[in-house]
Design goal:
Layout lengths: L4 H12 L4 E2 L3 H8 L4 E7 L6 H11 L8 E6 L4 H11 L9 E6 L2 E6 L1 H4 L4 H15 L8
Parallel strand pairs: 1-3, 2-3
Antiparallel strand pairs: 2-4, 4-5
Length: 145
C-alpha cells in the first residue's frame, strides 16, 4: 500500500529543496545511477524514528568542500517500482532498509548507511559520517574553491 502523497510531500521536499532529483521509475534509476562520478542515493521514508534525523543529516552533509556529483532519491512506500528496482539491481546483497543512504562511484556501490545505523542518531552524526565518505571519495566542488 502506498502512502498518501499529501502526507509525504513535505518529506520529499526536504530533499528536493537541497537539490536531490526524484527517481520514480526503473528507467530513471538506470539513467541516474549509471552516470559517471559519485552519486548519493537516499531511500527516503516516513519512518519517524530514523527518517526524521536522516533527512536533515543528509542535507547538512552537503555543506562540505567535497560532495557527490549527483544527488538522487526514491521514496519507499511511494516510488515502489523504482525503490524495488534500486534494491534488486544496485543494492543487491544489501538488506532492504528504509530509510537508507547509498554512495556510488560510476554506478558501483561504495558505501551504505542502513536504517539501524540511522536510528537513534542525531542529524549531526549522520552528516559527519557522510562528510567523511565525501572527503574520501569525492573531489572538491567548484563552489568550494
Amino acid at each position: 500500500m502506498q502512502y498518501d502523497p499529501l502526507l509525504v510531500q513535505p518529506m520529499r521536499e526536504e530533499l528536493t529543496r537541497a537539490g536531490f532529483e526524484e527517481l520514480h521509475t526503473p528507467e530513471q534509476v538506470d539513467a541516474a545511477l549509471t552516470k559517471s562520478g559519485v552519486s548519493l542515493l537516499v531511500v527516503n521514508s516516513v519512518c519517524g524514528c530514523a527518517a526524521g534525523s536522516m533527512r536533515p543529516g543528509v542535507v547538512n552533509s552537503l555543506v562540505n568542500e567535497k560532495k557527490p556529483d549527483h544527488l538522487f532519491t526514491v521514496f519507499a512506500g511511494q516510488d515502489t517500482e523504482a525503490t524495488q528496482y534500486v534494491r534488486d539491481t544496485y543494492l543487491a546483497g544489501q538488506p532492504p532498509s528504509s530509510p537508507s543512504i547509498a554512495l556510488f562511484n560510476n554506478g558501483t556501490l561504495i558505501g551504505m548507511i542502513h536504517r539501524y545505523q540511522i536510528e537513534g542518531r542525531f542529524p549531526e552524526a549522520i552528516s559527519q559520517a557522510l562528510k567523511g565518505a565525501y572527503d574520501e571519495f569525492c573531489v572538491p566542488t567548484a563552489d568550494a574553491v
